[in-house]
Design a protein that fits this description.
alpha/beta, six-stranded mixed sheet
C-alpha cells in the first residue's frame, strides 16, 4: 500500500490491484489525503492490508469508496483501469465484497447463500455449472461450514452466519477481496482461521483489504492503513516502529503495541484511576 502527495491538492492511494486518485479534502469519502502519512510498501498485488482507526474515523467509508459503492471526487482504479469503466459483471468477477453486518436471504440454506457468490460467472438464468458447485464446496470447506450447508441462514448463530457470508465472498474467486469487519461474531480460533484464509489469498497473488477492530489480528497483516477523523493519517508495514507509534497516537495513546515472540500485539491501557480500584 502506498499513499503519496501529488502537488497541494491530490493524493494517490495504491493497495495491490486497487488505486484511488482524489482531490485533497478532509474526509475519507472522495479523497485519500495522507495527513502526513508515509509510504513504505510497494503496493503490489499479493498484499493483506488492514484498515484501522477509532470508531467513526471513516474506515468503512473509505472501504466503500474503494469498492465503488460511494461516490468520490477522484477516480478508483482496478488493475489500472477506472472502476466505473468496468462492465458490472466483469467487475463483480474481479472484486468481491463483504459489508459490515450484511443482510442475507434468511430463508435460504447456507449452500445456496454461498452459491450466490457464483452469479457473476453465470449467464442470466443459467443453471450452476460443475465449476460453480466445486467453488462453493471449496469455500464452505475453507470457512469450515460444510456441515452447515443444508441449514437455513436464519437458523445459524451469529458466528456461523458470518462464516457462511465469508464463504460466499470467497466463492467469487475474485483477485480483490474487500471486507468490512469480517471477524464480527467470530471466536478467536475462527478469527485465526480467517487470517489463514486471507494469507492463502495473498499467497496466490490476491489483494485483501479489510476493516478490522481486532488490532492484534490487524497487526498480522502486511500493511496498516490508519484512519482518524476522516483522514488517512498513516500507512506502512505492520512491523514498522513508525506504524506502531501512529497506531497508538490514533487511539490517543490508550493502547500499547508489544512484541510477543515473533508477533506484535495491541493491548488497551487502563487509566490510572481505574487501575487503582482493581482487585
Amino acid at each position: 500500500m502506498k499513499v503519496s502527495n501529488v502537488g497541494r491538492s491530490a493524493a494517490i492511494l495504491a493497495i495491490g490491484a486497487l488505486a484511488l486518485t482524489a482531490c485533497g479534502s478532509d474526509n475519507a469519502t472522495g479523497n485519500a489525503n495522507s495527513g502526513g502519512g508515509s509510504g513504505e510498501s510497494s503496493g503490489v498485488s499479493g498484499t493483506l492490508t488492514g484498515i484501522v482507526g477509532p470508531n467513526g474515523a471513516g474506515k468503512s467509508t473509505l472501504l466503500r469508496v474503494l469498492a465503488g459503492l460511494l461516490p468520490t471526487d477522484g477516480v478508483v482504479q482496478l488493475h489500472g483501469k477506472p472502476l466505473a469503466d468496468w462492465p458490472a459483471r466483469e467487475r463483480a468477477r474481479q472484486l468481491a465484497w463483504l459489508g459490515q453486518g450484511e443482510a442475507g436471504a434468511e430463508d435460504l440454506i447456507a449452500y445456496d447463500v454461498v452459491l450466490l457468490g457464483r452469479l457473476p460467472h453465470r449467464a442470466w438464468l443459467a443453471p450452476p455449472t460443475a465449476a460453480d458447485h466445486a467453488a462453493v464446496q471449496r469455500a464452505l470447506a475453507e470457512m469450515q461450514v460444510a456441515h452447515l450447508q443444508s441449514r437455513r441462514l436464519g437458523d445459524l448463530s451469529g458466528g456461523e452466519r458470518q462464516r457462511v457470508l465469508l464463504a460466499r465472498a470467497l466463492a467469487v474467486h475474485a483477485p480483490v477481496l474487500l471486507m468490512d469487519e469480517p471477524l464480527a461474531h467470530l471466536d478467536p480460533p475462527h478469527q485465526a482461521d480467517w487470517l489463514a484464509v486471507a494469507r492463502a489469498q495473498v499467497a496466490a497473488g490476491g489483494t485483501v483489504v479489510s476493516v478490522l477492530h481486532e488490532l492484534g489480528l490487524a497487526l498480522q497483516a502486511d500493511d496498516l492503513l490508519i484512519v482518524r477523523d476522516g483522514r488517512i493519517v498513516h500507512h506502512g508495514p505492520c512491523s514498522s516502529p513508525t506504524t506502531h507509534r501512529a497506531l497508538q497516537a490514533a487511539f490517543d495513546w490508550r493502547i500499547g503495541v508489544y512484541q510477543v515472540k515473533d508477533r506484535w500485539v495491541a493491548l488497551p491501557r487502563i487509566p490510572q484511576e481505574q487501575s487503582s480500584h482493581a482487585d
